[in-house]
Amino acid sequence: MQPSIFDDSLRTGFEVIDEQHRMFLDMLSELGEQIQAGHHRQGVLNAFQGMQAYADGHFTDEEATMAGYDYPDLADHRRQHDTFRRMTRDLGKRTGEGPGLLSLETLEYLGTWFVGHIRNDDQRFAAFAREHGPRA
Ligand SMILES: [Fe+2]
Ligand SMILES: [Fe+2]
């Protein structure tokens, strides 16, 4: 499972955002490798929680950047972030309750969601930002 590795087609031109996207996708891949290698559940859970916290911090940073551009779609964009936040919170809770609940398929789903979100939504913001510039 390596479908979600960062590449240039995902760049938004915002260096901090791009770096966070790359880092998140790396964390996701690493987590997949841990699961494949049969790591102990607590280790997997810790890595999952680290990834979850990282995503949450990224979303918060991104939302602040968008606010700095008076981005009109910020509320809608934040709702999408909240969907991902909810998904990972639920997954983290269930993974903590029982073994074997965090599958490679689930990680692949998260990766596909994240990459799709970059392509469709983060890049739409980047295009807006390039056109309009930051708030004066
Ligand atoms: Fe993002
Ligand atoms: Fe986003």
From TrEMBL:
Domain of life of the native organism: Bacteria
Annotated Hemerythrin-like domain residues: 13-127
Alphabetically ordered keywords of this record: Iron, Metal-binding, Oxygen transport, Transport
SUPFAM superfamilies: Hemerythrin-like
One term of GO molecular function: oxygen carrier activity
Metal-binding found in the keyword field: yes
Keyword Transport: yes
InterPro entries: Haemerythrin_Fe_BS (IPR016131), Hemerythrin (IPR050669), Hemerythrin-like (IPR012312), Hemerythrin-like_sf (IPR035938), Hemerythrin_metal-bd (IPR012827)
NCBIfam families: bact_hemeryth, hemeryth_dom
The protein's name in its UniProt record: Hemerythrin-like metal-binding protein
Species assigned in the record: Solidesulfovibrio fructosivorans JJ]
